[in-house]
Amino acid sequence: MKKQVMALALGWATAFAAGAEVTVSEAWVRASLPQQRATGAFMKIRSADERLRLVGAATGVAEVAEIHEMRIENDIVRMGRVGAVELVPGETLELRPGGYHVMLMGLHEPLAVGREVALELLFEGADGVVRRVPVTALVQPLNARPGSHHR
Ligand SMILES: [Cu+2]
Fold first, then answer.
1. Half-sphere exposure of 134 (CA within 13 A, CB side)
2. DSSP count for the chain of H helices, then E strands
3. CATH top class, domain 5-137
4. Predicted TM-score (pTM) above 0.85
5. In sequence order, what are the residues at sequence separation of 6 or more whose Cβ sits closer than 8 angstroms to the Cβ of residue 143?
6. I need a labelling partner for 137 at 20 to 30 A (CA). Which of 24, 28, 31, 79 fits?
């Protein structure tokens, strides 16, 4: 069984047992204010050669972490939970403000700029098995990033 864990500048790459590999890069979490109970995590995800589904997330910094999608319908911004997001092999899925994101709800404490947040992403393979991939995300202010407001 091949297993490798490689630290990137801001993220992790983990090889699955079957040789499939998913790479998570540029992971960041939007900084939160003291009264704020929710924020979002964003990153780039790429599966080398396996069709995977992002089916969930976990973290210790909030009560709930779930996959959300934000989109504009008839000029109205809508955000809600999605059951799964498909990863097409060889293509990069970008979680970004205004699109898919990992929603962190029920924050246990404010997330200050510069802090590192440990997340886990849950990927379901074609075999139906769910693998957990650890990700380290850096807390950053939203205005340091391109893209629209989160909420
Ligand atoms: Cu959300």
1. 10
2. 0, 12
3. mainly beta
4. no
5. none
6. 79
